[in-house]
Amino acid sequence: MLVDRWRTALAASGRPVTVLVLLGILLAMVTVLFMTYDLKGSLDFALELRGRKVGGMLLVGFAVAYASVLLHTITNNRILTPSLMGFDALFVLIQTAAAFFFGTLAFLSLDVRLRFGIEVGIMLAFAAVLYRLLFGGENRDLFLLVLAGIITGTVFTSLTALIMRVLDPNEFMTLQDLLFANFSTVNRDLLLVSAAAVVAIVLATRPLLAQLDAVALGREHAINLGVDHRAVVRRCLAAIAVLVSVSTALVGPVAFLGLLVSNMAYQLTGTFRHRYTPAAAGMIAAIALIGGQFLLQEVFASVVRLSVIISFIGGIYFILLLLREAGR
Amino acid sequence: MIELRGVTKRYGPNTVVDGVSLTVPGGGVTALIGPNGAGKSTLLSMIGRLLPLDGGEIRVDGLDVSRTAGDVLARKLSILRQENQVAVRLTVKELVEFGRFPYSRGRLTTEDGRHVEEAIEFLELAEFAARPLNRLSGGQRQRAFIAMVLCQDTDYVLLDEPLNNLDMRHASQTMGLIRRFATELNKTIVIVLHDVNFASYHADRVVAMKDGSIVADGAPGEIITAPWMAEIFDLEVPVHSYADRPVAAYFAIG
Amino acid sequence: MSTHSGPRPASGRIRDTTLLGLALVSLTAVSAWSLFIGVSDIGLSDLLRAEPSKMLLFAVSRVPRLAAILLSGSAMGVVGLIMQSLVRNRFVAPTTAGTVDAASLGLVIAAIWLAGASVFLKMTVAVVFALAGTALFMALVQRLRYADIIVVPLIGIMLGGVIQAAATFLALRYDLLQSLSAWTNGDFSGILRGRYELLYLVGAMTAAAYLFANRFTLAGMGRDVAVNLGVNYLRVLYGGMALAASVAAVVVVVVGGIPFLGLVVPNLVTMTMGDNLRRVLPLTAVSGAFFVLACDIVSRTIRFPYEIPVGTVVGVVGGGLFLALVLRSRFNAG
């Protein structure tokens, strides 16, 4: 009986499940390669260091991917990602502003968990403001969302630079390095807090997944089908705020990653169902991050940052996507 | 039964719907007519709780639409607005399946499957069932959305200008289908119509709005008359009789 | 887009002139004031006494700086206006059409492979890249089914992002990241006599744009209207875009990118005065200069005696203004 049901479910949803399995295998392969390639010196130390990096990239990949899928669904489009809306720029701004108000040293000496908690709190407040701004009115306009988001992001970035320069005009670059994380320096405590936050978000949003399928049809259809649209959207925005905090705190802004992997997930799985898309997008993101980092580090031994390559590929993909959607 | 009491909607200084009271008993087709900006679509959206009320009260079978849980209402009433663009890529069948969402939350039972089949059959969409929505013509897509609403199997169905952008054949076929909903499936239908002649032939009752208020309410034969048309649309329209029904010959003026 | 175009009563003309006059007077006043802001204290009396050291500082640093601000500010305002008219989209500007990023990519490439070349040659490379980047943008936009107000600038922004990623890639490999960030973020602190003179070229090009203003307006009404009125549409379109791209590239070479300027200033001006370029171009030039000057004064005084790049200040102020504009347009429309 159970097997039968499973079999029919597989038949009905064959492609998404196959894709998920294949992605899982690929992810496992990339991870093993990253962990074991050319191990030298103290095995324990090397494994711990690499493990931390892999953990960070898995978390970041999933957080970015899930946040993008959620935002796509509640705004009914496939191009608007949290980073396009200035979410990660805001997180960086919050970090800098906190350093400004509390003093750089005092802020950096705060417990990582406490620091992260404060930052997430402010992000949530921002998500609430954003909700009122975007969904408070009766007519929403994608054009405004995207444009206002890009502008806000630029303003946040400029404001961050401004605060840093005012904070310490001579040590601008040092400050930038000190405040902002990257892939090679993943803090252990932060990794644990982030993992806990991501697990909490996944558990909290699981009951929403079926309703999100209906929300993807648009606000009016979702309401007609009995979904409490406001509540779902509000919870999703809160989840997005936490997820973006996680990824930005761990490795800084990774523009375009979310856009790239979510759209690839829609295409590969051939479905919009939220039972499959977040998992697929998350795995694609992790594969891209771990595999990309491996190639850069081990194969090309390059100084070039992964985020630059993601921006390059992501930007081109995005333009192609736009041309295919709106092209003749 | 749908009961409206003192329903009001304002946008800034403009009152779009002004203290409307109306009772629609179960069964039949009730057509809302009136000039552009009269508040018909706004009123319909408020009944379907797509828009919050600024005053008054709306009850459907005794349930206050502003307070009742969304999923309870979704099994009681459905609403279809005129613009139906869906961002995600869905096939016709997938869309129609969403009509069962209020019952099964996305996990279709055998009974849900039966409803889906029936709705697709009723709207003669079987040959397009596996086709993505964006590869349908406007008329076919409109029928797919109507099938979803039908599949939702609610006693009350609210339709906002469902004939918009349909050609003559599709408009008349769709209106005929809607009429069959009411007659064969015993649904209560409230429909906003631009063309008073469709109301004349297919509605049981015509409610005319102007400037946010109801100005006329009665059987088609009573409302589709030259004096009433002049009053509602500010236009002298000759009204003829054809097949025992009034026909407003508005296209012959000018 | 057009709010007040078309024939207007004589009183409108008079109001235009008054407005322009007022703007010019305030620009002159603030310009004069700005000359006396800086680390070294210079008073009016020093000038009157013709104190040699102070006069030298004035001639080598303060005056060139002011000239650079006025020239680049007005030029970027006008360039934004022209691009918005020609592409028929009020959110297109050198920063949202890939132009600025292409110019800085050109500079990176010139710095790598033409390291010893003259500024003029490097500028030429930047201009060529800016032209190519803008042409690519135009080619992409023409592949759109319809020129959606949002998709067009989005394509430009993304194209800019891709080009910038390529530039960053090269900069990382050849250790030019600091130079690149100077080109992408406008800064007047390095402006001295001997380097800003390229901007006079920009001034001349901006003035030339005024001569073609009517043709730009017509092209902005679409191909059909333009052709019907006997304008060579394609020539005006490509000529105008090439002019705009070249001007923007030269500004990038001398000053660096100034975000939002080409978006905010023309939009604010056309919102009150309509889209007839001949009418709005002078005020746009003056407003652009005024805007940059005001931001430059802020950037010099906010953390005195240190200076903050003007691009950063414009990013905050201009971005805030633009956001307000965009949100306002929503309430007007809704």
From TrEMBL, chain A:
It is a multi-pass membrane protein. The chain crosses the membrane at residues 12-34, 54-75, 87-110, 116-135, 142-164, 190-209, 236-256, 276-296, 303-323. GO terms for cellular component: plasma membrane. Pfam families: FecCD. Keywords: Cell membrane, Membrane, Transmembrane, Transmembrane helix, Transport. Belongs to the binding-protein-dependent transport system permease family. FecCD subfamily. This is Iron chelate uptake ABC transporter family permease subunit. The lineage of its organism: Bacteria, Bacillati, Chloroflexota, Caldilineae, Caldilineales.
TrEMBL record, chain B:
The keyword Ion transport applies. The keyword Zinc does not apply. Its main location: membrane. One of its GO terms (molecular function) is ATP hydrolysis activity. SUPFAM superfamilies: P-loop containing nucleoside triphosphate hydrolases. It comes from the Bacteria. It holds the Pfam family ABC_tran. This is ATP-binding cassette domain-containing protein. It comes from Caldilineaceae bacterium SB0661_bin_32.
From TrEMBL, chain C:
Pfam families: FecCD. The keyword DNA repair does not apply. GO terms for cellular component: plasma membrane. The chain crosses the membrane at residues 20-44, 65-83, 126-144, 150-172, 198-216, 236-269, 281-302, 308-327. GO terms for molecular function: transmembrane transporter activity. Keywords: Cell membrane, Membrane, Transmembrane, Transmembrane helix, Transport. Its main location: membrane. One of its GO terms (biological process) is siderophore-iron import into cell. It comes from the Bacteria. It is found in: Cell membrane. It is a multi-pass membrane protein. Belongs to the binding-protein-dependent transport system permease family. FecCD subfamily. This is Iron chelate uptake ABC transporter family permease subunit. It comes from Caldilineaceae bacterium SB0661_bin_32.
